[in-house]
Amino acid sequence: MGTRVILSGMRPTGRLHIGNYVGALMNWIRLQNEAEAQCYFMVADWHALTTDYEDPSQVESNIEAMVMDWLSCGLNPEKVVLFRQSWISEHAELALILSMITPLSWLERNPTYKEQINTLKDKAISTHGFLGYPVLQAADILLYGATHVPVGEDQLPHLELTREIARRFNFLYKKSVLTEPQALLSPVPKVLGMDGRKMSKSYGNTVYITEEEKELSNKIRCMFTDPHKVKMGDRGHPNPCPDNPTGCMVFQFHKMYEDSKNAGSREKTCMEGTLGCSPCKKDLYDEMNAALKIFREKRKTIKKEQVAQLLKEGSEMAQKRASETLRRVKDALGYR
Ligand code: TRP
């Protein structure tokens, strides 16, 4: 297998939560340790404008918080190139060129687009930029000749569009300039939030990866457990069942954080009624706190100025590669 070129990006939404970590970042960190992989990870700050163009005032601070979290989780700038989309003008240029060859119908039938237009009803996102979101994303990927793109399931339609756009470009200009990328799906497709819905900032059910002890403890205390287990001695139902389809959320979180040796006995004692919900929550707190402590401690060693410097250096490196691809694209068009 030759060198794999890995590219992925995240919109700067601020502090990361466990869902972002398990759904994406964990996969990035795993890939950075592969000898044969060259990794590019991008702050998708132009993409942030597609939904927040009315008030972009938080973008800068969100970028800083997000990149600090990337580093806190163990993303290593000596092994990967970290860069910022808006600092590399080639992204905007290639997106413009690709927009010329992308049929509107491809964008209009994109399921992610249709879903977002429905869920973000109160935002005015019937814009050219929002419809063209996947064209910009295709430019992000194709500029680096990425062979593999680690993403969550929700991004698969965008990846398919990227492949179609690359194919169309190569076909129209009779040169194979652009590489069709493959998706690398995260092993854990989605993490549920404290309330059993998908973990998401907009639902207010997140746990931040650098959550402080006090807040973590509060959040765990507020989690609901089996509604039929009210007093000491009641038998619990930790697993999903028809009247409680997500099961007990505390138990679901134990599955992620607990040593698998203990999981069996926890389930058994809960079902027998000998394990109460309070001590069970206390155990969860201890497990999660131990895991998050590592990130919190690491975060203390990272300085804000370091983030700007890293992005500057990374962006310079990334731009070299991006400008070569853009040159080849222009050559294929016959533009000087
Ligand atoms: N659309 C992606 C998301 O919302 C972010 C993104 C932008 C991206 N450009 C990318 C992901 C390029 C992978 C590759 O999560």
Break the fold down into its secondary structure elements and pairings:
Blueprint: E1 4-10, H1 18-32, E2 37-43, H2 45-52, H3 59-72, E3 80-84, H4 90-101, H5 104-108, H6 111-119, H7 128-131, H8 133-142, E4 148-151, H9 156-172, E5 182-185, H10 213-221, H11 249-257, H12 260-272, H13 277-300, H14 304-333
Parallel strand pairs: 1-2, 2-3, 4-5
The protein binds tryptophan (TRP).
In short, what is this structure?
The protein is mainly alpha-helical and 336 residues long. It has 14 helices and five strands.
What does this molecule look like?
The protein is mainly alpha-helical and 336 residues long. The chain folds into 2 domains: 4-191 and 304-333, Rossmann fold (3-Layer(aba) Sandwich); 210-299, Tyrosyl-Transfer RNA Synthetase (Orthogonal Bundle). The chain is built from 14 helices and 5 strands. It has helices at 18-32, 45-52, 59-72, 90-101, 104-108, 111-119, 128-131, 133-142, 156-172, 213-221, 249-257, 260-272, 277-300, 304-333, and strands at 4-10, 37-43, 80-84, 148-151, 182-185. The strands form 2 sheets. Strands 1-2-3 form a 3-stranded parallel β-sheet. It starts with a strand and ends with a helix. The mean pLDDT is 94. Bound molecules: tryptophan (TRP). Tryptophan (TRP) binds next to strand 1, helix 8 and strand 4. Residues 7-11, 44, 47, 137, 140-141, 149, 151, 155 line the site of tryptophan.
